[in-house]
Design a protein that fits this description.
The complex is a heterodimer of chains A (about 775) and B (about 180). By secondary structure, chain A is mostly beta strands. In chain A, about 5% of the residues lie in helices and about 55% in strands. Chain A is built from seven helices and 42 strands. Helix content of chain B is about 10%, strand content about 40%. Chain B has helices at about 1-10, 90-100, and strands spanning about 30-40, 45-50, 65, 65-70, 75-85, 90, 105-110, 115-120, 130-135, 140-150, 165-175. In chain B, the strands form two sheets. In chain B, strands 1, 2, 3, 5, 6, 8 and 9 form a seven-stranded antiparallel β-sheet that branches. The chains are: A mainly beta (about 775), B mainly beta (about 180).
Chain lengths: ~775, ~180
Amino acid sequence: MNTNNHIRFVYLHTLLLVCILCPTFAQESCDCFIKGVVLDKESRQPIPGAAVIIKELQKGAVTDVDGHYRIDQLCQGQYTLISRILGYREISQSVTLVHTSEQNVLLTEDDIHLKDVNVTAQRAQALSSQTVSQLEGKTLDQTRGQSLGDALRTITGVTTLQTGSSIAKPVIHGMHSNRVLILNNGIRQEGQQWGSEHAPEIDPFVANRMTVIKGAAGVRFGSDAIGGVILVEPAPLPTTKTVHGELNLVGFTNGRQGVASLQTEGGFGKGFGWRVQGTIKRGGNVRTPNYYLDNTGISEQNFSAAMGYRAARFRSEIYYSRFNSQIGIFSGSHIGSLTDLQAVLENGEPFVKSGFSYTIGRPYQQISHDLLKWKTDWKPVAGGDLSLTLARQFDDRMEYDLHRPKNDSLAALNRPELRFRLTTYTGDLVFEHKPIADKLTGSLGISGFYQYNIMNGRPLIPNFRTYNAGIFWIEKLKQNRWEYEAGLRYDYRHMQVFRYENKVLQKPLYVFQNFSGTLGATFSVSDQWSMRFNAGTSWRAPNVSELFSDGVHHGAAAYELGDSNLRPEVAYNLNLSTNYSGKRVQTEVGFFYNTIQNYIYLKPQAEPILTIRGAFPSFKYTQTDALYAGMDAGIQAELFPKLSGTSKLSLLYVQDTRLNQPIVMTPPNRWENGLRYDFGKVGKWRDAYAGVGNLWVARQNRVPAGPRSANSDFLPPPPAYSLWNLTAGFAVPVAKNHQIDVGLTVNNLFNTVYRDYLNRFRYYADDPGRNVSVRLKWKF
Amino acid sequence: MVTLGASMTLLAGCNDKADEPEPADENELITTVNLKFTESGTTTTQTFSYRDTDGDGGQAPTKFDKITLKANKTYDLAVELLDESKTPVDDVSKEVAEKGIEHLFVYTLTPNTLATYTYGDKDAKNLPIGLKGTLKTNAAGTGKLKVQLRHQPNAKDGTPTPGSDDVNVDFDLTVQ
């Protein structure tokens, strides 16, 4: 990107492009190499440990103590060279390795300055033997304006659990909510994740990269990382004085939604940098192919600010973000009794019909989330890296029911029927030791958190106070083409619950302890082909909602009862994946096999619960053993010059291994295909492209047998569906080194009527119809 | 380590008030349905109730009466809804009357030959509410009387379809 030229922290100082054997007649020589040195732009000091990678080949090298690197055995051709290291902006640079007859270049080491490079932190938080997918750059740009969950859905193996169109929770390999951990700027997101209608309280515009670790990652991240981990990472702070920024404008036809996000950053010199960012989002009623969904508007205002100081051996950064959202809940989903539910099911479409409106009425959710984070890094002269991260977050969730109280004076207060206030303090201290014999790297860390919940309104979950402490140790050994990893962690959790039982205050105490471990290996078969294997364990303490729920879940028409004797879930996770990155074909196949002991789920009960609104089917949190197994496969290939095709397949098999039956609400298999044509330069337009895609989602045929209400569901899974979409984009240069990126997407091109099995509103209404979106991005 | 330890100790000392939960405070709860039957021409009133003072779940309803009426009689039927979880007890039926244009009681008899319900009140828009009415019993028999309160803000049209249930109770009914 041209605009990146302004953010220079690192020079790829000397870059030598050489072919040793360059016979005059050879069509293609494969003994070229690239070598050079990576320096800090400001201090001109060499940077050891920077990764320099050839993107097309996924092949690279790490700079040595003097900042030098060398990548051998390259064929002639056009490559993209990426350089990255912790604390720096990533740089990406085109390199042409051409035929040359000057063999002596090798000896003289001509300095060829390339364009300046910006370099990013690529802190290796994920183990390299784990299956990791990233969303960044142009792929991330294409998701701008969408919620976090929807944006992540572009990654193979990731789907969403939806409550209507405005609430989407990421699902990794079939697992979600408390089984997926989200790290927002390095801090575990602590909202009220247990609720399937509680979306992550994160503005995706804060991130310049999102990483999904598929599989248990409990050793590094602690409890809850059973299904996977999502890392939402902002770019490192700048240090140069010039002010830069990025403006994003997105418009959607469905819901007539507009999103605007502005980010500016700069520095004060001497290593001080800052960034301020804000997002506004406003949308109205969403339309299915045949009708509007009443009260499905959204209003969101987000803000974040960061300031940091960076020196050679010391780095410190303070970050604050606030997320504020009001989400209308489709009014047709409010169910007073089972009779109401049956009436809607028989009707086939909602009784409540409306036109378009931006008004958000009852029922709605009002959520705010504050995060304050302070991180300090220190590299002692003796070697290694010591980092301390402290954070406080406050999550305030208010839920308003459809009906105001009948009593006028109560109604005038407009109090939420439910309010949860969750405060969490986290602290992490991690020491990365210096590499031993250039082969063994590792880190040792302790982490702690303290959390308390204050609950008002209808009793749903009680107040509680939790202390958690963990200690972990991870080592990596690199030996030729092999890389081995091993890690161990111990966690201790102390949770006290405060609740009234028959008007008497009860204070049950829970203490959980757990060991987690991981073992992994990566084998580079060739420069293009690598294989990874990881075995890991992870755990999750039962959530208060699972321990103490006691009430009717409105919208689900189910009575949910907790069990205060639940024990922690323990997951055993096997992952095997292989990755091939050729020049024209890139492919990745991954297999996973997860068993979860003491898997907590809602088990249908024989006796319904009698309430004043009739008898409700009753469910109780129960433990069993579960198996989640499956495969993700993806291939991207250049079919003809400029024309490329992609295909992604996700298969999932979920079984209750104690009862030998499937488990409800697991994502069906899906297959996604796309074709893309790159026009390149068209008149004044640059990087023009157009593409067409299709998503096919199978019917979920694996559901528990038996009468519907006895298998936690009121309707059989909806039929398979197939959706078409169009994408197009180009860049318009507006000034020297400035350009506006324009993107266009049409989702559900043919306005197909469908219902998704993982949309909790599938009982009441269809999924949204056609949606055209236009995105503008201006970097300055 | 020391810093982290110190900060955790500091945090632990925080006065977070999690240990002082507020008692459950539902904005609105209907705990009790009282059906008051008065035989025409008499002052004898029989009351049959559904009562669940701690709301949904928790303890089972403490009272769920079976209705017994005489055959071929006409009864005045008045409904009373209470929130007995509050002190003083909140009379929800009064509030239903005030917001008559949002509410409709629906009485369903199974089998429908058992008795006939006739509305005895109207809201501001001249649509029935059902807080008051008459129930005319037929020949002896047994069955059910379903009492529903439909909450229909901005949607009340005299039919049960719009809105959602605030009350939905099936009483056993014996006509003898």
